[in-house]
Specification:
- This is Restriction endonuclease.
- By secondary structure, the chain is α/β, with parallel strands linked by helices.
- The protein has 5 helices and 7 strands, in the order H-E-E-E-E-E-H-E-H-H-E-H.
- The chain has one domain.
- The strands form 2 sheets. A 5-stranded mixed sheet has the order 1-4-5-6-7.
- It is globular.
Length: about 190
């Protein structure tokens, strides 16, 4: 597939995922990598990674969130990419801790349009999978050892979601989201 076509498929997939996740009224994804790459950047022990979407949860606990989207029509060898995603989530969290900065409890969401690793599906967001990812991708450890406390924390912050394009038909429109958010008051100041 030509690069332009692949890029356009990715852009469409990101737009659909953004609409779907925001229609839950629990997330606001202000930035996408195509229009605001700097806001989708995550520093980790080995450098930086650009996720597809970035934003935050709404409500009292406004945790930062980064979303990686895979708009595929088959398994397409997603597992190695997912392992990299897990390794980066660990590495980014470790970088914050090792630098003595405040942990903002960043969450990481993997959204795919096709399930993968079916035999492992129930445990993809587990501590064991994070350890396997770090063995497979040691470059994300920098010169540090695996910290089991960070593994445990990150496992609680990983989301693995499957979205079918028809789910958009069940989602609120952007205008409906704005109306609902006004009633729910999730965007009101928390002070």
């Amino acid at each position: 597939m030509p690069a332009e076509q692949t890029q356009e498929q990715g852009r469409k997939g990101v737009a659909l995922v953004q609409r779907w996740l925001e229609s839950t009224t629990f997330l606001e994804l202000n930035w996408n990598v195509y229009d605001n790459s700097a806001m989708c950047e995550v520093e980790h022990l080995g450098g930086v990674k650009y996720f597809d979407l970035a934003g935050s949860f709404l409500g009292a606990n406004r945790r930062e969130v980064f979303v990686e989207n895979k708009n595929y029509s088959s398994d397409s060898g997603q597992y190695p990419h997912f392992q990299e995603f897990l390794a980066i989530a660990y590495s980014a969290t470790a970088k914050v801790k090792n630098a003595g900065r405040m942990d903002r409890a960043t969450e990481f969401i993997w959204v795919t349009t096709h399930p993968f690793s079916i035999k492992r599906w129930a445990s993809l967001a587990s501590e064991a999978e994070i350890r396997l990812a770090l063995v497979a991708r040691p470059e994300f450890l920098g010169d540090t050892e695996v910290d089991e406390d960070i593994v445990r924390v990150v496992a609680g912050r990983i989301w693995v979601l499957v979205m079918h394009e028809k789910q958009i038909d069940l989602s609120l429109t952007q205008q409906e989201v704005w109306q609902v958010l006004a009633l729910l008051k999730r965007k009101e100041a928390t002070l």
